[in-house]
Fold this sequence. Notes:
5 strands; 115 residues; binds zinc ion
Amino acid sequence: MADDCIFCKIIRKEIPSEIVFEDDEILVFKDINPxxxxxxxxxxxxxxxxxxxxxxxDQALIGKxxxxxxxxxxxxxxxxxxxxxxxxxxxxxGQDVFHLHAHLLGGRKFSWPPG
Length: 115
Ligand code: 5GP
Ligand code: ZN
């Protein structure tokens, strides 16, 4: 836990959020500024700053994060149409919040390559 991290505050329920999934390892909540009809953020409950800070002992956690994303895509009704799971790492990728998170985006058509 990091005292001044906005996502750790969401985990501690000090900041309200619309939670859609929660267990001891992973929290999923709606993005406050959605970029698609479905826009969820999946985060580990342990404070990890970026994907660069993940090591071998986190492999199961990262796998679970993707597996939960797949499950929620189904629940949100975007599995067939398609969806995108995005992890922005550091400044060139536009990471704004330095608590590792995956965006689950769906419900519209996305372009490629990304901007
Ligand atoms: P990044 O650019 O770091 O990959 O994405 C950070 C995301 O967190 C953004 O999509 C932003 O809208 C979202 N976000 C930032 N602060 C909050 C907050 O307090 N609550 C929620 N639900 N989402 C937030
Ligand atoms: Zn944090």
